[in-house]
From TrEMBL:
Key words of the record: Calcium, Lipoprotein, Metal-binding, Myristate, Repeat
InterPro entries with a match to the protein in the record: EF-hand-dom_pair (IPR011992), EF_Hand_1_Ca_BS (IPR018247), EF_hand_dom (IPR002048), Recoverin (IPR028846)
Naturally occurring in which organism (per UniProt): Symbiodinium natans
Entries under Pfam families matching the protein: EF-hand_7
Protein name, UniProt field: Frq1 protein
Residues spanning the signal sequence: none
SUPFAM superfamilies: EF-hand
Gene Ontology MF annotations: calcium ion binding
Amino acid sequence: MMELVCGISLLCKGSEDDKIQAVFKVFDENDDGFISMDEMYKFLTSVFKVVLTPAVIGAMNSMGVSVESAEDLASVTALECFKSADLNHDGRLSIEEFKTWFYGPRNDPAFMFSPVRKLLQ
């Protein structure tokens, strides 16, 4: 179900910001206005099941990131996300923290969420 919702949200019309807000709301499972580490992992796993291709896996491996599955990449990415975006260290991301992370290093080819960001544009 999550893969379907994520795929649909990526393909819907609207601004990039509208899509990000819609995805945030869908994966805020308990509707508390924040994404927990577990919710982020589930969200990223769903996204990466849609967009992770052998080419992306090869590119990640060539950058020194050992990735064999969507779950592997989701785990690594969720940890990095919280490390860089959970600015108040409360173990959850607000919509603003999520956007800060998502819009982060736009020109960094090592940024693991780049393939998804391209789909949202």
